[in-house]
Amino acid sequence: MNYLRRRLSDSSFIANLPDGYMTDLQRPDPPPQPPPKPAPVGAAPAASAAASASAASERRPQPAQPTQPTQPAQSAGVGFFSSITNVVKQTAASAGLVEQTAVGASKKFKILLVIDEAQQDWVKLFRGKKIQGEHDIKVEQAEFSEISLVSHANGTCNVHVQAFRNATKVVRSFMPDFVLIRQHAFSMVENEDFRNLIIGLQYAGIPSVNSLESVYNLCDKPWAFARLISAYKKLGPEAFPLIEQTFYPNYKDMVTMPTFPVVVKIGHAHCGMGKVKVANHSGFQDIASAVALTHAYTTTEPFVESKYDIRIQKIGSNYKAYMRTSISGSWKTNTGSAMLEQVAMTDRYKLWVDTCSEIFGGLDICAVKAIHGKDGKDYVTEVVGSSMPLIGEYQAEDKQHICDLVVARMNQAVARQAARSSQRPTTVQPSQVGKHAERFCYKVFLVLNPGVAVKPRESQLQRQDPSAEPNQSVSAQQLTSFRGGQQPRAMGHDLPDDQPSKARHQTPKAPSQQNSKPQVHKSQSLTNAFSFGSSSFFRSSSEDQAKAETIRSLRKSFASLFSD
To answer: Residue 451: its pLDDT value, please?
Structure first.
């Protein structure tokens, strides 16, 4: 055992061992149980009476107590072999040779992350809903500003939430299975840029409503307006009346004067922020100087005297249209006092929202904003994604439509995940074993068998050279010849990269020839090889076996990997 400790003491190998590996080898045997203390001599008569009463009770039949089995002498060897088996399994899993079972695969609920304000209670809406008829939905709700996350390429995303609920700090950590985004991910207002969180969710491949790609693309209004321009060119001005717009990348380009009056939109903002009405050239120059301080892009649109605003929303297959008329007299109808009224859904309105819902791979939840001018014309101005605010007296109904849509999308995501899992192979065929695992098996064999001959399989020799002797073997001393006189390396040191692969294609030569490489048969399957060693070890072990027998059995198990 001391020899094995010296051989396996390399730092690079110990770093890959599980916790407690070396302590299992160094743990001393448990001390024997102390014998019961004898009764004191010359006890009082009362003590004698108590002793006689206890003796009488002992003569009564007592239920048999289970005896603890004695630990065998080679328990340390069993722990040693189990540790090596675990290391091999971990190495094979990291090399992609076997499939790793997901930790949360057996959980009976799916975690839905809802990104929305705390005033909106989504937990109540999803209560009682099930995915695939068996998984409950656990809702975790938070705002963008309360979320931090870490994403991994294997598809896991660890989300941490720190929020204040009723003046109490709440800290939670979880891994979401689905995301519903009901907040704007980006605004040029201070501390409202959460695009990095969208990137993190996309990095882990978390499905969402709307899609994370569309959420990220809608973080810049001119970028989304460019898609509306494509729809305008496809459908024409009569079917899709898009408002005219001019884009300025920075303030230096704001030298071309538009037609006045004009509405200047600075950067990307919401709720009427960053919008200025300019009536003449001097006002436009003043705005350009203010844009220079923001380092933002700018767009301009001709000012339209609106009679009312139009908003057409789509949630799944549900459509609604609203008309909003300003009461306060402000040219921004989305600010101040306004009267909201639901209007009939016309084919024209439906065409607008259906066209906009096809951009960026599809928008399950979207809204189209338009202006109906006093000249009797309509002007489409903007498209909003799943972060659109719910308005009108049917907000509860709209929330239920969103809930049903999310459940349907979660069912589809779980079905796709199950289909991918069924197509993924669960076992490793012999042809799938990579060079990394074979080299690992070879190094383990050399460490545990420094003086044992390495014999190639007869099938390999006959396929390469029918005239070769089937029982030809190469000793450990001859292994040093092709290494330039070096001794076999301890585990953790890399072998030459070409040794395991080239050994298959070279014809075996006489052992006396200089620089001849031995034909070493590598394991056909890493998992099967160590499973065979484990079964052989437990068949040959018994409770009275010594540690030396354990090591010999372990060597025989590894030797079987390289011989017929």
So the answer is: 59
Check whether 76 has a pLDDT greater than 80.
no
pLDDT higher than threshold 50 for residue 114: yes
Q: In what order do the strands lie in the sheet with 275-278?
A: 246-248, 298-302, 262-266, 275-278
pLDDT at 465: 47
508-551 tens-digit pLDDT: 444 444 444 444 444 444 444 444 444 444 444 444 455 567 66
Reduced to 3 DSSP states, what percent helix, strand and coil does the chain have, rounded to the nearest 5? 40, 20, 45
Over range 477-492, report the average pLDDT: 43
Decide if 391 contacts 319 (C-beta within 8 A): no
Cα–Cα distance, 405 to 397 (Å, whole number): 12
Instruction: Please say if the pLDDT value at position 260 is more than 80.
Output: yes
The 3-state DSSP class for residue 31 equals coil
CA dist., res. 193 & res. 152, Å (int): 22
CA dist., res. 554 & res. 538, Å (int): 10
pLDDT for residue 337: 83
- Rounded to an integer, what distance in angstroms lies between the CA atom of residue 160 and that of residue 174? 7
Residue 286 main-chain phi, psi, to 5 deg: -65, -40
What pairing do the DSSP bridges indicate for beta strands 306-315 and 262-266? unpaired
3-state secondary structure of 179: strand
- Terminal Cα distance for the chain, rounded: 28
Burial class, 343, CB count within 10 angstroms (exposed 0-12 / middle 13-18 / buried 19+): middle
Three-class secondary structure of residue 166 per DSSP: coil
Backbone angles phi, psi at 325, to 5 degrees: -120, 130
CB proximity list for 526: less than 8 A, separation 6 or greater: 88, 91, 92, 97, 428, 433, 437, 438, 440, 441
Helix (H) or strand (E) holding 203: helix 195-204
Residue with tokens 């989504």: 122
More confident residue, 191 or 62: 191
Task: Report residue 321's pLDDT band, with 50, 70 and 90 as the boundaries.
Answer: very high
Closest CA to 278 of 259, 293, 291, 295: 259
| More reliable by pLDDT, 77 or 132 | 132
| β 135-142/109-115 pair status | parallel
Triad 202, 205, 209: Cα angle to 5°: 75
> Which parts of 279-363 fold into alpha helices (H)?
281-294, 347-356
145 vs 508, more confident = 145
Backbone CA torsion sign across 381, 385, 389, 393: positive
Angle 534-537-540 from CA coordinates, rounded to 5°: 150
Report d(CA 557, CA 80) in Å as an integer.
Answer: 14
- Whether residue 180 contacts residue 209, with contact meaning beta carbons closer than 8 Å, is answered with yes
DSSP per residue, 468-491: S-TT--B-HHHHTTTTTSPPPPPT
